[in-house]
Amino acid sequence: MSHGLEIGLMSLAGFAAIAAILYARHRYVTLHHLTSDEAKLTGFEKLVYHKFYVDELYEKLISQPFFRLSEFFGGWVDKLIIDRVVNGTAWWIDATGRTMRLFQNGNTGFYVFAMVAGMIILFIIRLLL
Length: 129
Prior knowledge:
The protein has 129 residues and is mostly helical.
């Protein structure tokens, strides 16, 4: 493109913006054509009045699906999987602790016996494999 065409297109865009500003000023400031009655609005005015429905689209396409997804994860995944894993781990540690407490009675002779028995079991396993 030539520089003349580029300058002409920029000028046309600038004049169009100035014309739109002057038209809006004339319509809404000079003629006081502000209305709060939605029924009187035409198609494009209604589109602009509702901010191009960006908020409604965002609500339908982004917010509601993420809300449903969070309800699913909070209600099903968290309660049925994560809570069961955490509670199961706590139960296992509690049961292991109760069982091990029976062996931890302060009887040193029993500790030596358990150590020797474990070593013998390990030697037998090593000989067989």
